[in-house]
Specification:
six-stranded antiparallel beta sheet, alpha+beta, 6 strands, about 45% helix, about 180 residues
């Protein structure tokens, strides 16, 4: 009987340790999960992602501007997380309070239509829409730069290909250059 209780305690402690490790690893880059709003992130090819961007262009512009202008939301994300990057994947809709009803409806619709892996903000002028590919080592980043002074060269180093779509928009795809050296 004593051995059974010890085994149960060891299993319970092991499970808690596993959950703690999982939570720490999943939040290393200050991220919050969006899966409860839009389901699992959608997998795209580069061409599919570019076509989706063309189809949803107006929405990409709106979401980038909504997110860049909402300091209280990003401050809340930073306050919750230990990392230096504020990534956003909505967990449970708690974030709704930081947006107007109209903004939240647009965000929800965008996530449901495009199902990104993440959306992140870097500094005060860059929004990154991150999409997954079927190859786990690759991703597709659709970047919005709100001003011309932003150092695009830094972001271009993250991908084998970093192409200009127009004045404010770029797409990066392929295995990160860091993995190819």
């Amino acid at each position: 009987m004593l051995k059974i209780n010890i085994v149960k305690k060891v299993l319970a402690i092991s499970l808690l340790i596993f959950l703690l490790i999982f939570l720490v690893i999943s939040h290393l880059d200050a991220s919050i999960s969006i899966n409860s709003i839009s389901g699992k992130p959608k997998v795209y090819t580069k061409d599919e992602a570019l076509n989706m961007f063309d189809d949803e262009r107006k929405e990409f512009d709106e979401i980038a501007k909504i997110l860049l202008s909402n300091e209280s939301f990003w401050q809340n994300v930073k306050d919750k997380e230990t990392g230096t990057v504020a990534d956003m994947y909505f967990l449970d809709g708690e974030e709704k309070k930081y947006f107007s009803k109209e903004e939240w409806d647009k965000i929800n619709k965008f996530f449901n239509n495009t199902r990104p892996y993440s959306i992140s903000r870097r500094g005060d002028s860059v929004i990154i829409f991150d999409y997954r590919t079927s190859d786990k080592q690759k991703n597709i980043g659709i970047y919005y730069f709100s001003n011309a002074q932003t150092d695009r060269a830094y972001y271009s180093q993250m991908y084998l290909h970093f192409d200009n779509i127009d004045d404010h928009w770029y797409v990066g795809y392929g295995i990160s250059k860091a993995f190819t050296k």
